[in-house]
Amino acid sequence: MAGRLRLATMACVSILCLSAPALAQEGKSALQSLQDAFVQVAQSVKPAVVNIATTQRPHPQEGRPAPQVPPQFRDFFGEDFFERFFGGPPQREQRSLGSGVIVDKRGYILTNDHVIEQADAIEVRLSDKRKFTATVIGKDPKTDLAVIKIDAPNDLPVAKLGDSAKIRIGEWAIAIGNPFGLDQTVTVGVISAVGRSDVGITMYEDFIQTDASINPGNSGGPLLNLSGEVVGINTAIVVTGQGIGFAIPISMAKEIKDRLIAQGKVVRGWLGVGIQELSEELASQFGVKPEDGVLVGNVMKDGPAERAGLKPGDIIQEFNGTKISDVHQLQREVAQGAVGSPARLKVLREKQVTTLTVVLGEQPAEVAAAEPESAPAEAADRFGLTVQDLTPELRNQFRITNLDGVMVSGVAEGGPAARAGVRPGDVITEVNRELVKSTRDFSRILGRMRGGQNLLLLVRRDGNSRFVVLPPQD
After folding, report:
1. What's the whole-model pTM score?
2. Which residue is catalytic, options 99, 192, 213, 219?
3. What is the DSSP letter of 165?
4. What is the pLDDT of residues 376-425, one digit of tens each?
5. Catalytic residue among 144, 211, 314, 389
6. CATH code reported for the domain at 41-55+92-266
7. Cα separations (Å) of 207 from 55, 250, 296?
């Protein structure tokens, strides 16, 4: 028995020893395959990536000619001398570089709006060194995308566009562009995150985050997967961070590209509402969870939402069958809708679910003489604000028409109202979901509140309304 065990052990050791080189070879083969994949992507896609050089000609300040400064003076004194004494550096042509990707054999190139936004002339250089003058087909600053076109033979290489909805966090990511003017630079990393919003770059944000190096000049270039498909358009970096770059998902970019090519602009759907996130405090007041939808703060007069019967205080939970969990998501869904098309909204109103159909409109281009009676001092003591009636003088002074409520006359520094962003001049139209038309209404509602209860206000400012929750002061 012992002999058989020794033989079995020796056999196992022998197998392991014999398989070690095989395992090493297998690992080497896997690494070689990965390396070959990177090389293949670079070789196949680089020809479709272009260098974009823009020129902005000098535009003298109105009524003030550009200073004509001899070069030797500029070199001796430095630029800051002319900044301080001549109101700016000597005016001359400004040049900048960016990237783009050919998406159509007819010469259409997808890039960032910020790459070409102020250009007087655009030059495109292909990977084979051919140069062409480009014309702008259309721009969309709200997504930072643009389409330009060159007149070139139909032998142009075209990048294959993928599906950004299928990418997974942790997948390989390859960026190609012209950082710092260094043509056809390839960098490799991974997909770090998807669905990034609140970055503060564009109005409609749904960014892919990657640690593949993206530097100045990469803007407008493609972000690729291992199959060589474009999954994003590189657009921005976090300057103070290491390995934090953002790309516009290609699914969004394709739609914008098609609209720009067809119409030269992007026409977006519009609901005509002011919406806000459901914070923990607001969600508690409405008896829902923060991810259960977005809150309607105001409904614009004669807009699509008003005609459909939407009201302030409604919680939009679904748009055309898509569950809505945040403001950015609803904005994107509505913007992608066709103008004039019907959209189905699932709305929670007074804890009852209802369905409304709204016909989407077209998004617009831009989206104290008397001492009035004041509400009781308890409002100031408990919530850090004072209010006053809307007198005819105040209505005239602040151009307030067709609106009832009370005006905020004072906000205590550091108090609950101040922390919630309430300002003097704001008009409060609802308190704890009840309409208020006077300080008497305001006082009556406050008088019914329990000691530790939060105060829910609907506040209107500059034509827009939003809900705020004020906790009582300690």
Report:
1. 0.67
2. 219
3. G
4. 445 667 888 888 888 777 787 778 888 889 998 888 888 889 888 999 88
5. 144
6. 2.40.10.120
7. 29, 10, 25
